[in-house]
Design goal:
mainly beta, Sulfite Oxidase, Chain A, domain 2, Immunoglobulin-like, five-stranded mixed beta sheet, five-stranded antiparallel beta sheet, 23 strands, heme binding, molybdopterin cofactor binding, molybdenum, oxidoreductase, MoCF_OxRdtse_dimer
Length: 347
């Protein structure tokens, strides 16, 4: 492909840098680093000598500082998995919500390699009071709701932190992480929205209380209209239509409607296509069952006759979760997963 015809990342903001993956134009199973979306709350941290040390302390039997070279020499865990920003598709909420107005591209997928966090915690041991594991990144700055400088920091419940596939990652697609994606070390939490996968890890602290930092107790919380707030955690069942593009004009004849579907809990079991939102037909799923954390490609053969159509797509996962026709509205615009639509004209 000629460079002039290659898609570009879609810039949402420059300071901090937030850019979308051109997801509708990329057929790749592994999204290259230069196309992986960027989500930042602050400017990029400077990479200094201390960035290559990772101390673990708190409710542990012994505090240990791990060197980067130690970490990469532990037995590695490697898997292919997607990351989706919790605000992906936020621009589609009606009424509008607070936050970066992402379209469909705050999602990417690649092969992560690192050391299981549980292996590192087995070196430190845990006290009987351990409840959560707190992760702090080197990125910091002022929030709009405060004059104080704060780091990006979040915690995980002990059960999730000790899952064998929760890893301290140092490679993406068989190369060291790029600086803009968390080099030298970042957390990867498969199945959870991307905010959990803290970048530029500075330190890990095992704590005996619920963490209430601003990126845990204020941001990344669902604030619905009529029920109590609750935390953003696992990725909702979701899908997109990659072809045809919205508002396409196509010739009559055979077309392959295609896209991807994913879920943070369980596998995608069905993807259905409709042209009226009432009657549904199954698409063909193309899924590697040995990769539980990846999206599922799907295709549907359509003999298109002249006219105007709205194509609907919905996915269902093995936990019985199905995409709704309308998104679950919440004040900060997280977890959008309404049934996607593509309007097309056939001539």
């Amino acid at each position: 492909m000629d460079d002039l015809n290659k898609p570009f990342l879609i810039t949402k903001s420059l300071y901090p840098e937030n850019q979308e993956t051109p997801i509708k134009f990329l057929p790749h199973h592994l999204i290259p680093t230069n196309y992986h979306f960027k989500r930042n709350h602050f400017n990029y941290p400077k990479i200094l000598t201390q960035n290559f040390l990772l101390p673990i302390s708190g409710e542990v039997v012994k505090s240990v500082t791990f060197y980067f070279n130690q970490i990469i020499n532990f037995p590695a865990t490697t898997f292919t998995g997607l990351l989706e920003c919790a605000g992906n598709n936020r621009s589609k909420f009606d009424p509008k919500t607070f936050g970066e107005q992402w379209e469909e591209g705050a999602i990417s997928q690649g092969r992560w390699r690192g050391v299981s966090l549980s292996k590192l915690l087995s070196q430190t041991g845990l006290t009987t009071d351990a409840k959560e594991v707190l992760f702090e990144g080197y990125d910091f700055g002022k929030r709009e709701d405060s004059d104080n400088y704060v780091p990006f920091a979040r915690s995980l419940p002990l059960k999730i932190a000790l899952h064998p596939d929760t890893i301290i990652a140092y490679e993406y697609n068989d190369k060291l992480l790029s600086i803009k994606h968390g080099f030298p070390l970042r957390l990867i939490v498969p199945g959870w929205y991307g905010m959990a996968s803290v970048k530029w890890l500075k330190k890990i602290t095992v704590i005996n209380y619920p963490f209430t930092g601003p990126f845990q107790a204020i941001d990344y919380v669902y604030y619905p209209k009529d029920i109590e707030p609750f935390p953003v955690t696992t990725t909702n069942v979701n899908s997109i239509i990659q072809y045809p593009l919205n508002y396409s004009i196509l010739d009559a004849g055979n077309h392959t409607i295609e896209g991807i579907a994913w879920s943070g809990e369980g596998d995608i079991t069905t993807v259905e296509i409709s042209f009226d939102g009432l009657h549904w037909s199954n698409a063909v799923l193309l899924k590697n069952t040995t990769e539980p954390y990846t999206w599922t490609k799907w295709k549907y053969q359509w003999n298109a006759l002249e006219g105007e159509y709205t194509i609907f797509c919905r996915a269902t996962d093995s936990k019985g979760r199905r995409q709704p026709m309308n998104a679950f509205w919440n004040k900060k615009g997280y977890g959008y997963n309404a049934t996607p639509k593509a309007h097309v004209k056939i001539t």
